Amino acid sequence: MIIGYARVSRKEQNLNLQIDALKKAGCEKIYTEKISAVKERPEFEKVLDLLRKGDKLVVWKLDRLGRSLKQLVNLVEEFGKREIEFTCIYDNIDTSTPQGRLFFNMMASLAEYEREIIKERTMHGLEAAKIRGKFGGRPAGLSNENLQKAKVAKQLYEEGKISAKEIAKTLGLSTATLYRYLHRMEVKIGELPAS
Prior knowledge:
Elements: E1 2-8, H1 16-24, E2 29-34, H2 42-50, E3 56-59, H3 69-81, E4 85-88, E5 93-94, H4 98-131, H5 144-159, H6 164-171, H7 175-184
Parallel strand pairs: 1-2, 1-3, 3-4
Antiparallel strand pairs: 4-5
Helix pairs in contact: 3-4, 5-6, 5-7, 6-7
């Protein structure tokens, strides 16, 4: 079965150009969506469930199928494993031909190369920062100002004269931050009146 998939990003956009091209390509069923590629695509999910060994998925343009090279490569690899052919009309790609398969193999290699380059740059950046005495991740502790606030918070909380909410307001903290500070200062929360 030849299945077509057409998508536009906004409701006011028109699908006619894509639908006409898919019909001309011999699609027996056409699924359409007016939704951004960032969001869930229920019609596309139906297409993926419907496709069987020997079927062909046809789209007008590659960007209708996925929003990133990695996503496209992953989809086409999945199609290959499931023995589903893929055709992109506008970009003249057909994985049932040797040229189409070569094109996607090259895309997969480029995507892998890009991932390796990013990983390598990250490692070099971390090494350079380490040489300069800087380390990645969250800071090891509280700043001097926040450490002072934490000490005051501990004292006020242990006195038990005002609520945790009032302590947080007095110190200009959120209640969640106050409790993080108290935990850091090893205060046993709940043993003292805090509300």
